[in-house]
C-alpha cells in the first residue's frame, strides 16, 4: 500500500456528468412509467448505470442524524476515482477495472455457528432490512481520509437474522473469488479471497454498518458493490468489499493483510495517531479532496462509542 499522489487522476469538469442530470432523468422516467407511456422498445435514451441496478428504487434512504461529522463531505468525483480494491489491481485507477464486476445475481452465504444458516440473494436481503444514510469518516492505513454518506443497515440486524449460537465469538467475512473478472486475483502471491473479521461485540456495536449505497444511490462497483462493510473507527482495510460469505466462528479469523504482513497489519487495526505503522507515521492524514494534512484522532474520532470494546485487552496489538 502506497501513499497517495493527489489529483493525478482528476477528470476534467467537462467530462463529469452533474448529479442533477442523473436525478432529473430518473424522475422523468418515473413519471412516464406512471402514465404507462414507458413501453418496451421505447426509443428513450438508456438511463445512466445507477438506474440499471434493481435496488435503485430504495435510494436515497433517510439520513440518520445520530451519525454526523464535523468534516466536509468528500465529493463523489474524488472518492469514486481513488479506491483500494486489490482484486482489480494495486493502482488507484481501479474504478475503471472494477466495472467488470457482475453484481447480479449476488448471493451471500451466512453460515457457521448460527441457528439460521442461509444463502440469500442481495435483493431478498434488502427486503429484510431497513436502509438509512449515515455520514462516516474513513481513514485508510495509508494516511489518507475521506468523509462520505454511506447507505446501509446495522450489522447487528444481520447478526439477528443469522441467530448466532452461544459459542460464536467472531464474524469472518469473505469477498468474491473470480480471477477471470478480477485480474488482481491472478496474482498468486496474495492469499485470495480477501478475508476480514471482527468480534461479535464489535459486530453488534451501533457503528458497524453494512453498506449497500453511497451518495444516495446503490454502491458503484469500485466501492465494493453490492455489499461491503464500514467500520469507521478502524483502518480502512477492515471495511471489506463485495462480500459473499459471513461465517460465525469461535476462531479469530486471519485477515488478508494480516496473512500477507502480520508485523504491519493486525486483527484489531483501530486508528491511533500515536502508534506508527512500521514504515510511516499515523499522526496525520491527507484529506482526499483538498490535499490538506490534518491530525488523526484516536479511534478516528469514535472513541466515545467504541473505546469500551477494548477494556481488558491492553496486552493486544490494538492499533495496527
Ligand atoms: N475486498 C476488498 N476489500 C477492501 C479492499 C480491497 O482491496 N479488497 N481495500 C480496503 C482498503 S485498504 C480501503 S482504504 C477501503 C477503500 O474503500 P473505498 O475504495 O470505497 O474508498 O476498502 C477496503 N476493503
Ligand atoms: Mo486502506
TrEMBL record:
Predicted to be exported by the Tat system. The position of the signal peptide cleavage has not been experimentally proven. Its cofactor is Mo-molybdopterin. It comes from the Bacteria. Heterodimer of a catalytic subunit (MsrP) and a heme-binding subunit (MsrQ). PROSITE patterns: TAT. It catalyses: L-methionyl-[protein] + a quinone + H2O = L-methionyl-(S)-S-oxide-[protein] + a quinol; L-methionyl-[protein] + a quinone + H2O = L-methionyl-(R)-S-oxide-[protein] + a quinol. This is Protein-methionine-sulfoxide reductase catalytic subunit MsrP. One of its GO terms (biological process) is protein repair. Keywords: Metal-binding, Molybdenum, Oxidoreductase, Signal. GO terms for molecular function: metal ion binding; molybdopterin cofactor binding; oxidoreductase activity, acting on a sulfur group of donors, quinone or similar compound as acceptor. Mo-molybdopterin binds at residues 83, 86-87, 140, 175, 228, 239-241. Binds 1 Mo-molybdopterin (Mo-MPT) cofactor per subunit. InterPro entries: MsrP, OxRdtase_Mopterin-bd_dom, OxRdtase_Mopterin-bd_sf, TAT_signal. It comes from Stappia albiluteola. Its EC number is 1.8.5.-. The lineage of its organism: Bacteria, Pseudomonadati, Pseudomonadota, Alphaproteobacteria, Hyphomicrobiales.
Amino acid at each position: 500500500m502506497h501513499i497517495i499522489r493527489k489529483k493525478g487522476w482528476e477528470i476534467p469538469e467537462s467530462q463529469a456528468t452533474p448529479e442533477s442530470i442523473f436525478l432529473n432523468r430518473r424522475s422523468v422516467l418515473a413519471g412516464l412509467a406512471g402514465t404507462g407511456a414507458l413501453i418496451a422498445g421505447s426509443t428513450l435514451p438508456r438511463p445512466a448505470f445507477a438506474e440499471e441496478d434493481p435496488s435503485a428504487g430504495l435510494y436515497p434512504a433517510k439520513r440518520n442524524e445520530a451519525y454526523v461529522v464535523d468534516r466536509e463531505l468528500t465529493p463523489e468525483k474524488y472518492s469514486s476515482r481513488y479506491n483500494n480494491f486489490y482484486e482489480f489491481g494495486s493502482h488507484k485507477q481501479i474504478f475503471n477495472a472494477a466495472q467488470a464486476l457482475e453484481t447480479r445475481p449476488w448471493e451471500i452465504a451466512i453460515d457457521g455457528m448460527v441457528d439460521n444458516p442461509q444463502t440469500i440473494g442481495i435483493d431478498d436481503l434488502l427486503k429484510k432490512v431497513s436502509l438509512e444514510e449515515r455520514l462516516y469518516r474513513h481513514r485508510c492505513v495509508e494516511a489518507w481520509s475521506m468523509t462520505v454518506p454511506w447507505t446501509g443497515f446495522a450489522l447487528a440486524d444481520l447478526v439477528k437474522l443469522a441467530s448466532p449460537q452461544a459459542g460464536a465469538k467472531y464474524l469472518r467475512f469473505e469477498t468474491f473469488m473470480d480471477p477471470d473478472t478480477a485480474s488482481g486475483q491472478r496474482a498468486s502471491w496474495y492469499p485470495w479471497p480477501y478475508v476480514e473479521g471482527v468480534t461479535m461485540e464489535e459486530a453488534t456495536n451501533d457503528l458497524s454498518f453494512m453498506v449497500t449505497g453511497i451518495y444516495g444511490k446503490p454502491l458503484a462497483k469500485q466501492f465494493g458493490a453490492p455489499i461491503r462493510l464500514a467500520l469507521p473507527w478502524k483502518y480502512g482495510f477492515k471495511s471489506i468489499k463485495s462480500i459473499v460469505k459471513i461465517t460465525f466462528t469461535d476462531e479469530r479469523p486471519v485477515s488478508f493483510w494480516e496473512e500477507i504482513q502480520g508485523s504491519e497489519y493486525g486483527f484489531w487495526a483501530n486508528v491511533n495517531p500515536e502508534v506508527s505503522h512500521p514504515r510511516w507515521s499515523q499522526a496525520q492524514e491527507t484529506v482526499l479532496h483538498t490535499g490538506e494534512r490534518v491530525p488523526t484522532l484516536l479511534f478516528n474520532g469514535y472513541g466515545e462509542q467504541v473505546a469500551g470494546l477494548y477494556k481488558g485487552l491492553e496486552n493486544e496489538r490494538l492499533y495496527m
